[in-house]
Design a protein that fits this description.
about 60 residues, mainly beta, SH3 type barrels, five-stranded antiparallel sheet, 5 strands, globular
């Protein structure tokens, strides 16, 4: 399993593997293995990428 924290950047869209009810979240910041994600149905959550393997959904929202 690869470590997504090394490629994640603000604006990318991810989901939490154990909490699909949170919806698709947008990465707010990445500091080492600490990733802050804003989930529409849960709010801002800081996730330890060494403990939770986030799922990459999209590289970011489409430009308008």
């Amino acid at each position: 399993m690869s470590d997504l924290s090394s490629i994640l950047a603000p604006g990318m869209l991810v989901s939490h593997p154990d909490r699909p009810d949170w919806g698709t979240g947008q990465v707010q910041s990445v500091i080492g293995h600490r990733i802050t994600v804003n989930f529409p149905d849960e709010g801002k959550i800081v996730i330890d990428a060494t403990q939770v393997p986030l799922i990459l959904v999209s590289l970011g929202p489409s430009p308008t």
